[in-house]
Design goal:
The complex is a heterodimer of chains A (783) and B (573). Chain A contains 37 helices and five strands. With 783 residues, chain A is mostly helical. Among the domains of chain A are: 1-156, Leucine-rich Repeat Variant (Alpha Horseshoe); 442-464 and 510-563 and 573-593, no CATH class. In chain A, a hairpin with an 8-residue loop joins β1 (161-162) and β2 (171-172). In chain A, α32 (684-694) runs antiparallel to α34. Chain B has eight helices and 32 strands. A five-stranded mixed sheet of chain B has the order 8-9-10-11-31, with no helix packed on it. Chain B has a five-stranded mixed sheet with strand order 16-17-18-19-23, with no helix packed on it. Chain B has a four-stranded antiparallel sheet with strand order 3-2-1-29, with no helix packed on it. The longest helix of chain B has 91 residues, at 453-543. The radius of gyration of chain B is 49 Å and the shape is elongated. Chains A and B meet through α2, α5, α8, α10 and α13 of A and α1, β32, α3, α4 and α6 of B. β5 of chain A pairs antiparallel with β32 of chain B, so a sheet runs across the interface.
Amino acid sequence: MAYMAMSLHAVNHRLTNIPVKQLPPLASSLAASLSNCGELLSTPQSQKSKSDSDNAVQVHKLMTRLASLLQDRSVEGRWTAVVLVKTLVEAGQWEVLRGSEPFVRGLIGILAKSDPVSTKKMSIITLTRIFHLTYQYPTLVREITTPSLPGFITSALNLISIKPSSEPVRKLKPNTPFLDIVLNAFGELIARHPTIFRPFTAQIHSVLQSIIGSTEPTYPEPILEIAQQLFISLHNCAPKNTSGEEWKNACRMTITSIHATSSYILRAVVEQWESVDPSLRQLSQPQNYSQEVGNGPDALGLSSWQGLPAGVNRLVVLLRMLSGFLDTATASTVTVPLGSILDLTARLNMVTYPSDGEIQANPQIGRAEREHLLTELPRIHAACLRLLVGIVKTFETAIIPVAQTILEQALWVFRAEKFSREVRTAVYDLVRTLLSHMGPCMTKQGVTSLTGVLRACCHDLLPPPSNQTAAAEKSDPKSKSKSSQATVNADSFLNPGLKPSRQLSSSPSFVELKRAASELLVAVLSHAPTELITPALRAEIDRTIIMTSDKNAMLASVLNPFATMQGRGVGISIMPFLARSHPAEMEVDALIRPRMPVLMNAPGVNGYTVADDEDEEETETVLEPQNSTETSGFLKPSVTPNLHQDMMDVEMTPQSSSPTMNKRSFAQETEVPTPALSTATGGAQSKKVRVEAEEPKAPAQPSLGAASPATFTGTAAISVPSSSITATAAPKPVVSMTGPSASMSTTTPQPRAVAEAAGDDESDDEMPTLNIDPDTDDEDEDE
Amino acid sequence: MLSECFIASTAASGKTPASASLRDVGICLHEFQPTLNLRSTFKKSSTAANCLAVSPSHVFAAQSEKAIVHVYSREKGNQEATVPFPERIRSIAVAGGKNGDVLVLGTEGGRLILWETCTGRQIATTASHLRPVTSLVVDPTSNFILSGSSDASIHVWSLVDLLSFTKPPSGRDRQPPNSPIRTFSNHRAAITSIAVGHSAGRYNIAVSIAEDSTAIAWDYRTGRLLRTFLLSANATCLTLDPVDRAFYVGYGDGSIQSVDFYKSQSIQHPLHDPSLHSTPVQPSADDRWAPPSPDSGAAHTLTLSYDGMTLLSGHQNGKVLSWNVGRKKYASTVADYTHPVTNLLMLPPNGLSHPSFDLTRMSHTIVKPRYDHTLSESSQPLGTVPADYTFSTHLLPTVSRPSSRPNQFTEAFTHAYFPESMLEEGLAELAAFDQGNTNTNVPSHAMSTGISDEEAFAKDAQIAQLENDLSLLKKKASINATARQTTTDEVTKLRADIANLHDYITELHGKQEQAQHEKILRQARKEERETRRREAWFAAEKKGKKGDAVLKKLDAEDTVMTSDTDDQSSDEQ
C-alpha cells in the first residue's frame, strides 16, 4: 500500500509539473505505475483512516487532473489523458467507474475534434471499455451508459460515414482508418444495450450493407468478418420477442441471396440439382445470356455486381456470412433452417470440376466463361465446406442425423477437386470434425469411402518425394508425362492405386494443410473402428505417422492398434517409434509405464481402522515421487472442504499384506516376507537384482520404525526403481498406500522430509548411506 | 462457487410426507455439497426406476403406468410439457453428449423411440425386444444405445444409423432398417440395470445385472463377454466407478456391494485377460456393506459423486443414503422423501471451469415430437434432408470461440492500458502531427474538398512512407547518439587511465630515488666503518696490542649493529 501511495503521488506530481507537450513519451511508464496501484484505486473511500484520506485526496486529484487533461488544448495532453483514463478505469473498477462521467464526456468530445487518428482510436476503445465495465452495475448503466451511449454511437458513426439527408441512411466514407475499431466497438456493445442501439439500426445496417456488398474495392478480411458479425448481431435490437424472428429472416434472406447469386454464376453449366424445398424449384428466372453475368440488388439489399470474379467474391462472402449466423451468439432461441442450408450446400457442391472433361454445358454460354467458372469452383467449394465445418462445430452431437449427408457432400467435392489445396484442407477439417461425432458407428462402407481422403492426407504429410529413393525404379509410364519433376513421386512406391492423386504436390510451407492432415489422421485412428481400415491403408498411415513423428498421431496409433485377424500374424504396434521419438513426454510415459492408482483392492477392512503413530510414519515411507502427481491435487486448497475430505479417502486405501504391495513392503517391519520377484522378466531382471541387493539393507536397520523421517525418505527412494521396473515388465497397477489417518497433514510433511534428507546427509550418523537420487547412486553403492 | 447437486425422483405411494415442502413432489433437485439442502422441486410426477433423464436444460420423467413423459424446465423450474406417446414408457435416457438433444425412450412393446428435442423429429425402431425395455444407457461417445429388456437380452443400437437421414450404403447385413446392430444374450433372466464405462475409446465396457444374480462385464463394441460375477442375491441397481475400476450394486435388502475389477494380480488388464473370460468370479461377502437399519427397504437406484468417493442410494422407504466408498460402509442419510426413491442422478458440479463443460448452445424450450413422415412416406427422394428440418436453439456467447486472429481491438480492449505497439504508433503520429500541423493543413483541407480516391490513397501511402522514414531517422539518430555517448565514455576512460599511469610512474620514480639514496647512505656508512676499523687497528698496533683481535671484536659489534652485511664487507674479511 505504501508503495502504491508513493507511486500514485509520483504520478500526480509528474502529471502536474511536467509540461503537457512532453507528457506523451512518459505516458507508457505512468500507465504502468498506475495500473500497479489497482488495489489502492479500487479501495472504497468510505473507509476513512488517516492514510486513506490522504490517498483519497491523491486519487481525486488524479481524476480531476485527467478530466482537465482530456479538455486540454494540446493534442499531446489529450493523447496522454486517453491512455491514462483507460489505465485508471481498468485498475480502479467500480470506484473509478462511478466517477467516470466527466471522462466519458471528454472522450466523446475528442471524437469530434481534429485529433490524430490514434487518439480517436484509443478514445473509442476506452469508451467501449467503460461501457463494457459498467454493464454489471445497473446503477452505473443508468447514470453513465444510458445517457452517453447514443452520443457515442452518433460520433462513431460520423467517423466512418456521412449522413447526407434526414433519412436514416448513411454513406460510408472511403478509406477511413476507424472502420475496424468502430465496428468492433459496436459488436462488443450491441448485444448488451440493444434498446439504445435500436434507433440506429437502420443507419448501421446501411453502412454494413455497403461494406459487405462492396465489390469494387473489397474490404480486407478482418473488417469483412466483423461487419458480418455485426450484421448478424443487429437482430438483438429487434423489439421484444421478435429477435428470433428477425434472425431467422436475415438467415433466410442470406440463403435466398446465395441461391440467386449462384443461379447467375452457375449459368454456364446445366445443374443436376433439384431443391427439396418446393418453393425454390421454380426459382430460376429467365436470364439474358447475351449480357455479361451480373445481378441487381438482391434479397439482402446488397449492391449489384458485374462479371464472374465479382460474383464469385460475393458468393464466398455470403457463404461466410451464413456460417457467421451459426457461430455468433444469438439473443434468444432461434430456429436454424438446417434443411435449407444443407439443400444449398448440396446445390453448390453438386457442380464439380469434371473429372473426364465432360460436363453438361449450357450451349448459350461461351467457352471462356465456362472455363473461368470451372477454375473458380474450388474456391466456392472450400467456402461451402467451411460452412459445413461451422455447422458441425456448432451443433456437435446434434449433427448426427445429417452427418452422413454432410460427409457425402464432402466426398463428392473431394473426388473431383482434390487437386486444390484449399479444398483438401477444408475436407480434412470437415471429415475430422464429423468423425469425432459419428466415427465409432461407421460401417465398412463408410470407412472404405474415406480411403481416398486418407491416402491424400498421408501424401500431404509425407516429406517431399526427393527423399525417397526406393521408389525411383518403380515409376510407371504415367509419371513420364511429368518430366518437369526430376524424381519420381513417392506414391508409386506407396501404392500403385494412387494414380489420380499423383498431381497433388505439397511443399513444407503449407502449415494449414499439414495441420489439417495430421489432425485427420489422429481422428481416424481414434474414432473410426480400426478393424475396418484395410491393412494396406493402415500400413500407409502408420508409415506416415512414423515419418512425421507427430506425437498425437503416434499415440492414437498405439492406443488403437491394428486389429489382428484370427491366425494372421501378431499385433503390430509402432510403440517403439513412439518411445524413441518422444521419450520424455508425459503421455508416452503414462502409456508405457502405467501407474494407475488402483484403490479398492485391499481385502482387509480392519486395516483401515488401525490409525496410530506407526502408521503415520509409514505414510511418509510411501510418499514417493510416483505418488506426487496424484497427491499434488490434494495440496491445493479445495473450495468445498467436504469434497476434499472425501477425496482424501481416495488415497487412504488400507494397508495390508497384500502381495501386490510387496515391492515396497520391506519398509513395514512386520509384513516383510521379502518377495520372490516373480513378475520381473527379461531385461528388467538384471536391474531387479541390483534392487534386491539393496533390500536387505533396509531391514538390517532395525530401528527403521522409529528413525527420523529422513531415513524413510531415503528408503522410499530405493523403491522407485523397483516399482517402475515392475511397471514396465508387467503393467500392473501400482498400489498407492497412504496411511489411514493421512489427512491434510500427511501431505505437507513430504517436501519437508525430502528437504531434511537432503540436508542431513552428512550430519546424521545413524542414517544408512542412501541417496535420494535413485538411479545413479544405487550403482555407486553397489560397486 | 463449486457445488454438486443430485436429482432424485420418487414413485407415488400411499404415504404422505412429513414436511409440507415435499407434498405432491415427484422430483427433487438436492444440493449435495457443500451443504445438504433441497434446492428445488418439481411436482406431480411418479416414476419407476430408469425413468428419469436430465439434460442441461430439462428434466424428463416417464410416468409409471402411463404413456406420457413429463418435461420440466430446469431454468424456469416448472413443468413445460406433457408429451404423450403411443405406448407405455418403461425407461428413458438422454443422448447427444453434453447438450442432451436426443431423448431415447424404451417402450412396453419392446421398441425404442428416439425424439430429437430440438427439432421435434421422432423415430421408432423395430420391436426387437420381446418384452418391455426396462433399462437404457447411451455410451459416452453418444454413438451407441444399450437397451436391456425383461426378455434377458441386451441390444446394442447404432444411434447414428437410427437418426441418419441418409442410411449408410447397403445397410447392415440385410437387416431391416432401424434394428439393433448387436445382441448380447449371456444373461438368463430379466435385465435389471445396465451401466456403461466412461471411456470414449474403443475398449469401453458395459456392465449389466439381471435377475439371475449375475453381473456381467462385457465389451459392447464387439459383444464379447469379459467377466461374469456371481452375486449373492438378485441385484436391483448398478453404478460404475468414474475410473471404471469397480462397480457397485444394490440389493433388495438395502445393502450395497462393491465389486472390484482389480482384485486379481494379473499382468494384463483384468477385464481383458482372455484366460479369465469364461471363469465366473464370486465377489467376497466382505464387500457387501450393510444398511444402517433393516427397514430401509430395497435399494432402487445408485449414483456416485463426481470424485467417485461417495455413493448415494435411493431406497424403498424414501431415504437417500450416502456410503463412504473408501471406508466401505454406510456414512449418513442424505434425504428423506417418504416415497420410494426410484432414480438418483448426480449432476456434474457447477463452477468447475473446464472448456469441455461449457455449453455453446442451450435449448430453452423443447419441440414436441411430430411423426417423421420422411420415413413412412416416399414422397421425398430417399436420404435427403427435408427443407423444413429446423433446429431451435439459443447460441450462447463463448469465451473460447476461436477468434480468427488477434486483432488490434480485442488486444487493446483487454489490456491493462494499451499495447506498446499502439502507444508507439500514437507517439509517432503525434510527432508527425506536430510537424505537419503547419504545413499539412493545406492538403488535408484539399482532401476534404474532394479529391479522388487514388490521390487520397497515394497521399496515405506517402504519409505512411514519410512516417516510416521519420521513424528510421529517429532510430538512426538514437544510434548515433548512443555511439557518440560510447566514444565519449571511452575517451574519458582512456584519460583516466593515462592519469593513473602517470601517477604510477611518479611513484616508481620516487621509489627509485629512495633506493639510490639508501645505497649512497650505505656506502657512506661502510666507508665510515672502514675508517674506524683502520683507526682502531692503528691505535691497537700503537698500543702494542694485536690489531687483529681488536678488529674481530669490532666486527662482532658491527654485525650486531648493522644487520645488513653486504658483499663488500665479507670480501674484506
